[in-house]
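Dear Dr. H.,

I hope your travels went smoothly. While you were away I took the liberty of generating a structure for the chain from your last submission, since the lab meeting agenda had it listed for discussion. I wanted you to have the full record in hand beforehand rather than looking at slides cold. The sequence, exactly as received, is reproduced here:
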Amino acid sequence: MKKHLVISIMLLTGLYSCGQRDSSKTGKAVVESEQKDSTKNGSEQRSPNHYLKGFIFKDTTYASSTGKGITIKNGFPKGGMIKPDGTQYSDASGRTYGFSVFWTLIINETTTPLELTINFPADSLAIFTPPDSYLKLFLPTDTLTYDKLPSFNYGLTEIKSYLDTNFNKATQLQKTIRPNEEHIFYIVALSYNAGGTPRAALILNEQDLFYRMSIAPHGSGTIPIGQLAFKN
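The corresponding predicted structure, in token form, is as follows:
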């Protein structure tokens, strides 16, 4: 088994309960987040907020030097099983894992393109309190659309095949997000020997990205995973 990476960059003390929005502020340029109304005057055309209502765990806007911001929305988890029949994920050695799928939406409201780069390591991450527990993170390439949000596991399919193929591989995401555009994507987490209530969020600190995850009652941690920088 690959060695565990013990993360000590930013250990967290707070855990989150279902339905609670995180009001913590990270970085120098965080603007107070607010939940926006999901409908506007009974408009017949459904806005993104219509689909997102009820699925958002953390919603934060980061101010830029131009005065317009970058918004990052993080969803509640779905999972526990990789198929509706209750199937859980087991690796080639027979170890069974807690499974969670999350989504993150990044909205570029500035006038400059953004370059998104995320790298999840192949090694497992030791951030929870049980001494033999660990976390593995993945970036499935399946396309996520708003209409999939009510679906089982947010519409993510072929989960076992994907995890079997990528279990010992690093996974990456690189995307240019143009002005007034957005990008929504999946994040999958496997936890070993740390069952409980998971919560997770992508956090921006200046141009550095961090992923913060907790599993109650087994603690939490924050790891550096990439950058979201203005493109020259």
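Two observations you may find useful: Residues 4-16+56-230 form one domain. Residues 159-166 form the longest helix (8 residues).

With kind regards,
E. W.
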